[in-house]
Amino acid sequence: MTDPLALFDQWFAEARASEPNDSNAMALATVDAAGQPSLRMVLLKGHGPGGFVFYTNRESRKAAELAAVPKAALLFHWKSLRRQVRIEGAVTLAGDAESDVYFASRSRDSQLGAWASDQSRPLDARATFEARYEEMRDRFEGRPVPRPPHWGGYRVTPARIEFWQDRAHRLHERRVFTREGETWTEGLLYP
Hints:
The chain is built from five helices and nine strands, in the order αββββαββαααβββ. The protein is an alpha+beta fold. Strands 1, 2, 3, 4, 5, 6, 7, 8 and 9 form a nine-stranded antiparallel β-sheet that branches.
């Protein structure tokens, strides 16, 4: 049997070499308390045995949905390789120390944008956001930008991972891995 996390590492390395932009882009699907699904693109910023990590404003729509229903699905689509990976699992918050380290690695403009944005809330005009950004630039002039208290990471711990490979005549290959505790079971699905 194959280790699905090792297989993901292999496919991800190949995607980083072949995808023209954002090989770490993934669709993140969440659902609200009423069962309404929502989907958006985010960037994978870490992965390993503990799960798949992304960062965002913890007051955003996706954060509210994850607070209500702490489960998510991820989808990587690497067109250049004609592959996709689907991941489903429980979601937990990444720790403050981990979030601090990643936030410090972001560009200063991105750090300031995290302070300026009320992500997912109505915005009356682009000029309002740009003015808030300038206020943050002035506020933190000449000193490091700390991580906002409302910003941090999320970790999707996979319970199911599916690897899809395009094949001729739509005879695709689908390998699925499901986890029970620490044990993975491998199987195939019809295309």
